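Morning - 6-O-phosphono-beta-D-fructofuranose inputs below, output right after.
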Amino acid sequence: MAHPIDLPAWRDLSVHAGEMAASHMRTLFADDPGRFDRFSLRLGDVLLDYSKNRITGHTMDLLIRLAEQAGLETARDAMFSGAKINTTEGRAVLHTALRGGGRPEVAAVLDKMGHFAQAVRNGDWRGATGKVITDVVNIGIGGSDLGPVMVSEALRPYHKDGLRVRFVSNVDGTHMAETLKLCDPESTLFIVASKTFTTQETMANAHTAKGWLVDRLGPGAVASHFVALSTNAPAVAAFGIDTDHMFEFWDWVGGRYSLWSAIGLSIAVAIGFNDFRRLLDGAAAMDEHFRSAPLAANMPVVMGLLGVWYNNFMDAHAHAVLPYDQYLHRLPAYLQQLDMESNGKSVARDGSTVSWQTGTIIFGEPGTNGQHAFYQLIHQGTKLIPCDFLAAANTHNPVGEHHTLLLSNFLAQPEALMRGKTLDEVKAENPDLADAQAAHRVFAGNHPTNTLLYKLLDPYTLGMLIALYEHKVFVQGILWDINSFDQWGVELGKQLAKKILPQLTGADQPGAHDCSTAGLINAVKAFQA
Ligand code: F6P
């Protein structure tokens, strides 16, 4: 396939970006009262307003043409069909099959998860001394942590009272130590979540948790206090977990796409299997939309293309995700892995080095906290940072005026970012202000935003939103001609950490390191002496 920059639509978009440099969204809105209707999409209870972008109908036509020329539809169909599109690992990419039904092995694991979740929740599954489980600790990292913790936090209103779900990921012993302080061994269940069951951090944490339990309840207690989620049965057995208590998944489920698989067991325990099923159903609805809606009316396609527009034609390097929804406070962290581990690549699918920009920097915080932290730079800094704003029209916590206050901010920020404030407007508000002072109060505006408004953050809607972002990432990976499903970039640091480990613990002198690393190893040892 041709590289994206060689596609005719890419060249047309470069020219068009030059033309668009002179236009301001204020004018685009003033000239077109139908802009909201033209540039918004609705699927079920989710509305995407993308009208506050630096686009015209012509921009969208060119972007759609780019998607067509890049073979997006063929690539999408290849993913859904189970073709081995993860070519550097020789794997299919079938997280959509986890929520679509139709695969007996998926149905069997879901059934097992359902029974297990129910048994923990209703007290049938007990600890070694007969106590009901009150604390569930998911031990995992990356995709075996971020999805489950994000969803678990997002769906707190659906949690069972008296059953606490905790997450330990960091190899920093503090994470485990502080979590164990909150747990009673007799009523704690550990879920060891690791696709490979070899990840250093997870194995270290799992062994520490096992030691803690065995010290208090004896080795016989492991069977009723540990279960595993993995693709690696021999390693699970070697760790000492009965494989009957292992929930399986498959190599065609990427780590960062795995919350829908057995990796979601902590979610199913927290919210119950029926609501976990609703989460899957919401994702399946978005899958169907992605698979069948025309490109121009396809939410993940539109969001993906807009990201390409800014990343590749307007020199934007970052993208902010701003949930005006406290329940989504871990969404930016989750999306950092989903997006940056997927599309942070600089080699094209044919092995050549790219000469175009790929994955963007994702960051964010819940609104309104972000407003009082980094929005200053988005409004008045020198960088172009497109933003996604997300909020629910209805709240699970109707406390006083809070939700209206929240929504007024959620609506005001994209408007402010789009409109800006001119020098004349500043002066009209402050007639006595000197020009040099007034300049500081001017807002250039023309800052692009997408707004995702949904009825209520329920499991089904959350499933839709997550799948929307998964497919957005897929669209961009195809447009950038990269493999979004490997992650070789995490390997080098792991290899070097293994070499350094004995140099920190033994008397060995630092081996072949640069003088900075060697100096730091010596300094650690000196401080510890
Ligand atoms: O960060 C690298 C990575 O391989 C992720 O892709 C994955 O989600 C994470 O490590 C955890 O891997 P595992 O589930 O095998 O422990």
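Note: The longest strand covers residues 188-193.

O.
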